[in-house]
């Protein structure tokens, strides 16, 4: 049980993480990695809950803060503003008793070295309770949907019938999906192993290896995890490897492979049928690919390089299959990374689109005639998906789309685009992913 002092310290740590994202544009994952060593192991779940929650509901919480303060806090007190968001999130969205949420949040001000602001934090939180501020519907659209205005507008334009449900899914908590290793049994068999360990899970027909946990678990508690019997991967991401591999063998390139989930899945399914090369331009992230493959006892050629400059690394032999999981806005996985809503800007989408098209143009000549390239993003924005693929198809006579899906169960997940297919976030509890299968003709 968290005592009062450690509870206050934890809330101060959460405020510093949130402030680093909001005020300095830093990555939530990286800031949590820095913060967690100072927090007791049993309290790290609460740290993550508070940070994710305050960022997920940033606009609504900030609207409440603005209504409760007579004037905004100074820029140098931005961590205290983040602490107020942490406090309000506890009062409105958790089962933490109000008195504990208020007292430990107020005490956290001292750990932020702003003790003179403790009375202000106390007054703001108590007034929020008294006046039921959090039960009041905000007036601004950003606060209503907890997304930046530019992204709301873009989703409304791209998905006129679905934009509100996409926003709602983005604000939910993501489930934990697993991928059962077929070398060690079926997904159904693994669900039975989980049940024997007191963990509830269920299968998904559209992704034969997918298992959804009723509640997230530490990987150490998963039967056979360390021995490579199972991996953590969203079920939508699990659609990529079998899609690329249909009837395919030979040389396969996984461009932008880190952290290696799709690489491992390709090898689990194809084994010696393929010779896999994995590239990534971040050597540190490529290390995660190596670690994943080692845990699963799988082997591939790993290269730290820029996939869009093949003249620097390509050996001249054509590939039979290419998995191109391009850098993108990650607008389909916001529920896993709520900081995306604060870190992304409208102008980023144009720049990302240019990168995506450049990678597609650069890698297409490396594909053998009759070969297959699967273009993948975890975005729901047309400017990164069907607009990129459609423009590429128009410009290349030797490229055609293969729009055949693997099975009818997958069809239930997909939205058909002008070219390619989209899984929207929240559909059967999946993340948002886009897929376009391209074949090179003579």
Structural Rg? 23 Å
Query: What percent of the residues sit in helical stretches (DSSP H or I)?
Result: 40-55%
Quaternary organisation: single chain
Shape: globular
Describe the fold and architecture.
It is a single chain. Helices cover 44% and strands 16% of the residues. By secondary structure, it is of the alpha/beta class. A hairpin with a 2-residue loop joins strand 2 and strand 3. The chain contains 18 helices and 13 strands. The mean pLDDT is 96. Helix 1 runs parallel beside helix 3.
Q: Which secondary structure elements does this structure contain, and how are they paired or packed?
A:
Blueprint lengths: L3 H21 L3 H8 L8 H13 L1 H11 L9 H16 L4 H14 L6 H13 L10 H5 L3 H10 L4 H8 L6 E4 L6 H10 L4 E4 L2 E7 L16 E3 L7 H6 L4 E6 L5 H10 L3 E7 L2 H13 L5 E4 L14 E7 L14 H4 L2 H18 L3 E11 L8 H10 L3 E3 L6 H4 L2 E3 L4 E3 L9 E8 L2
Parallel strand pairs: 5-6, 5-8, 6-7, 8-9
Antiparallel strand pairs: 1-3, 1-4, 2-3, 9-13, 10-13, 11-12, 12-13
Top keywords for this entry?
Alpha-Beta Plaits; 13 strands; alpha/beta; Rossmann fold; 442 residues; globular; 3 domains
Task: Give a short synopsis of this structure.
With 442 residues, the chain is of the alpha/beta class. It contains 18 helices and 13 strands.
